[in-house]
Amino acid sequence: MLTYCAGAWPGGDPNAIEVATSTLPTGVYNQALHWMAIAHAEAYDYIHSKSKNERKPIVGVAHHVSFTRPYGLFDVAAVALANSLTLFPYVDSICDKLDFIGINYYGQEVISGPGLKLVDNDEYSESGRGVYPDGLFRILIQFNERYKRLNIPFVITENGVSDETDLIRKPYILEHLLATYAAIIMVLS
User: Fold this and answer.
1) What GO MF annotations does this protein's record show (predicted)?
2) Last residue of a domain, one of 52, 69, 95
3) Does the global pTM surpass 0.85?
4) Which residues contact 186 (CB under 8 A, 6 or more apart)?
5) Distance between CA 160 and CA 139 in Å, rounded?
6) Of the given ranges (39-48, 55-64, 108-117), which has the lowest mean pLDDT?
């Protein structure tokens, strides 16, 4: 999507046809997910087949997620579409080939129309990520509800804030640890 639709990554100039068809079953987005899932499954099987130790290898995925919310009432459908494309489909496609699920969470994204919006009253990191610890809590609860049947651990593989002056780093870490703790308590109760 960031290559062919947004042109943000190398090799991609935005292409109207790619944008219009990217989320169709034969579109570039779903084709990329399909081949990533095949590659993951083959790597998982290969790694497990080559293990000669008593301890089995641990293979997982580090899945990047954001908590998305609509800017206004007319953006609710765009949030639903974004979540349907990014939150669970890839993990769903490989969930039988996972020994853990890693979650990379950096913050909240506010969707307005076809893009993202910076909201005046929200707090942001230097890289433009919305600081929203409750989003991590909500993501952990959603992932637990969806994948608890797998009986595999969740690992927060990435979380942090870009803050050259360290003004918000300590509160950010503390608030995100508290959000993680709250999710653990909720799941265990």
Assistant:
1) beta-D-fucosidase activity; beta-galactosidase activity; beta-glucosidase activity
2) 52
3) yes
4) 141
5) 16
6) 108-117
Tokens, residue 110: 């506010």
Within this chain, do residues 99 and 165 fall inside the same structural domain, yes or no?
yes
Say if residues 123 and 134 touch (Cβ distance below 8 Å).
Answer: no
**103, 116, 130, 109: which is closest to 67 by C-alpha?**
109
SS3 state of residue 10: coil
Please, which residues bridge with residue 33 across strands? none
pLDDT(92) > 80 = yes
Q: What total number of domains does the chain contain?
A: 2
Percent of the chain exceeding pLDDT 90 equals 74
User: Which range of residues forms the domain containing residue 15?
Assistant: 1-52
Q: Determine the pLDDT at residue 20.
A: 77
- Locus of tokens 């993202």: 116
Residue 172 main-chain phi, psi, to 5 deg: -60, -50
Same domain (yes/no): 82, 165: yes
In terms of domains, do 47 and 77 share one? no
> Crossing angle of helices 169-188/133-147, nearest 10°?
30
